[in-house]
Amino acid sequence: MERPASEAFDRAVQMLALLQRDGRLIDFLAENITPYPDAQLGAAVRTIHEACRKVLEHYVKLEPILNSEEDQPVTVQGGFDPAAIKLLGNVTGEPPIRGVLRHKGWHVKEVNLPPLPQGSGRMVIAPAEVELS
Fold it and tell me: Is residue 2 part of a domain?
């Protein structure tokens, strides 16, 4: 499989690898969870959630785009960035526009990923594990 020569691509793979290494996120998402009872899933999800949250806190600093309480009124001023603020519902008129905040949104403030591995390891999310007896 050919790989794009892009550090951004390598960094995306690296982030998935970190979420897998510490939180087993890829294993969880790749598994068919239909046969498991909700109680068993709930326990597993708590563990995965906590570990993946710690990965994000350690490597990626996030900030809310709008630092207001959700489900409360907000005013969107003129000149807002449509990539950062999505207007929902009956969108008419010009800003300032009043509405109800449904989601604060997230903005990446800082990324502190470790150095990329050298060689072909950049494409590995998780190595296969073979136990010898």
Answer: no
Q: Which pLDDT score is estimated for 2?
A: 52
Residue 130 lies in a domain: no
CB count within 10 Å of CB 17 equals 19
Give me the DSSP letters along the chain.
------HHHHHHHHHHHHHHHHH-HHHHHHS--TTS-HHHHHHHHHHHHHHHHHHHHHHEEEEESS-S-TTSEEEEPTT--TTT----SS--S-SSEEEE-S---EEEEEE-PPPPPSGGGGG-SS-------
Neighbours of 61 (CB within 10 A): 13
As given in the structure block, the two tokens for residue 9 are 């691509």
**Chain-centroid distance, C-alpha 26:** 13
Q: Is residue 1 part of a domain?
A: no
pLDDT in tens, 22-63: 999 999 999 999 999 999 899 889 999 999 999 999 999 999
Whether 132 maps to a domain, the answer reads no
